[in-house]
Structure formats: structure tokens, C-alpha cells
Amino acid sequence: MTSAPVDETAELAQLAIELARSGGALALQRRQAGFAVSTKSSPTDVVTDADRAVERLVRDELAARRPADSVVGEEAGDDGRADAAVRWLIDPIDGTVNFMLGLPQWAVSVAAEQDGRVIAGCVYNPVSGELFHASRGGGAYLDGLRLTGPRPVPLAEAVLGTGFGYDQDRRARQGRVVGELLGRVGNLRRLGSAALDLCFLAAGRLDLYFEGPLGEWDYAAGLLIAEEAGAITSGLYGRPAGSACVAAGQRDNAADFFALLEAVGAGRE
Ligand code: LIP
Fold first, then answer.
1. Which residue, judged by its Cα, is nearest atom 10 of ligand 1?
2. Counting atoms of ligand 1 from 1, which one is nearest the CA of 97?
3. Residue 125: phi, psi to the nearest 5?
4. Nearest to 96 by CA among 149, 133, 61, 55
5. What is the largest CA-CA distance in the chain?
6. What is the pTM of this model?
7. Would you say the CB of residue 174 lies under 6 angstroms from ligand 1?
């Protein structure tokens, strides 16, 4: 596996920031102007015409500036260009339910992948104005502040971030798993955006995180940001973090956390 030259990684990281910012500005404008809502896999799996408009904007910009690259987005899917050297992963609005309800916890997530590895990513919350970004080997940042990852706290004091799926039966199983965990960790937060949850872990606002399954667009940028901030990540059961499950903690508590998650059957709901 050859790593991208530093200058290309920096170029991709800068473009991810620009795309997230322009997508975020459009999303905020649509939020204020009004938007239509429809559903996808279930009555709770909502999508708005703002999601679609933001993804369209990002795709058009990439087609103009990086025509040889491949794009995968939550709403328009995979363009299937398997020969592309760089693949972009776009969640136009991560936390769509929060966006729809007016809860200020949603973000545009943009990641660039090369040789199957995410090397640049940006998660931008246009409501708070917070822009998280990272490049592989270059560190993770909130605006200009270097992020140093979660607190070194024991599980019993740790605040755990998680999320639940759109399928009712799966949500019930996930709830039972979380019920097993609550007596073993310090507290729980379900904030509604996997991308921002991972950024909050990177920023030390959460101590532990797990969720699964997830769309690769949900976690691609946030996982890079968390790893570049020093978080330890896993997909449990010997897997790397990925669509089946993303689990993350801090050097001193990650092994215990992952063992606890496996013991309660997390990531297998
Ligand atoms: C959401 C995730 C969230 C998860 C939701 C949903 P979306 O992404 O960010 O963590 O719990 O079920 O998948 O659908 O808002 O882009």
C-alpha cells in the first residue's frame, strides 16, 4: 500500500474542508427556507430535499475539480468507478432527524479515501460553526485547535456516545445491549450524528463511542478525526472499525471497553 504524497493529501484535506463548508452553508439556508421530508427504509429513516441538494452540490463540485475521482454518497449512492485512485465518501447531512426537528446537532461529512484508506476528512456543523478536520498522519483539529482525544478515565466514569438504527426490531436489540452497558459506564449520550459523536470523542467531549451498523459515509471522516486525535478504535471480534461496528476509546480504557462490548454482544444486534 503506497501512501499518498503529502502534497496530495494536503490538497484533498483542503478540498474536503471547502466542500463541507459550501455544503453546510446550503444546508443551513435550506433549513431556514424550508424543506420537504420523505422516508427511506422505515418511517424513522427520513431524508429531506436539503440532503439531496447538498449531496448534489458536493458531487457537482467534485466533478468539476476532481473528474477522475469516484464518489459515494448516502443519497445518490455509489458511482461505481472502481478504477478511480481517490474515492470520496459524502454524508450530506449526518443527523438528518436532528436537522428536521431543529436540534443543532447535525453536520456535513466529507472524506477522501485512497487505496481503501481514508486519508483526509472534514465534519462541519454549520449551526455551531465548528469545523473538525484531519489528514492521515497530520493530526486532527477543531478549527485551528489540535485535538488530543478522549479523557483517560476508567469505564465506570466514562461518558459513552452511541446511536441506534432505523429498524424497530434492531433498535430494541440495541436498547437491550445499551441497558447492559449502563451499569458499567459512567453515563450515556445519544446525540444523533455518528460523525459528530466521533469528533466529540476526538475533542474529549465523549470518552467512549460505539455504534453499528453504520453507513461508511456516516463514520468515514469522523473515524479519521478520532484516530488522528489518538483514539483507539476497533470493529470488535477481531475486525477493524467499519460498517459493522465502530468502537473507540482511550489508550488506558479501550481494551476493557472492547471486551465489555463483546461480552454483551454489541455490534451483532
Ligand atoms: C445517522 C447517524 C446516527 C445514527 C442514525 C443515522 P443519518 O445518520 O449519524 O448516529 O444513529 O441512525 O444513521 O441517517 O442522519 O445520515
1. 194
2. 15
3. -100, 105
4. 55
5. 52
6. 0.96
7. no
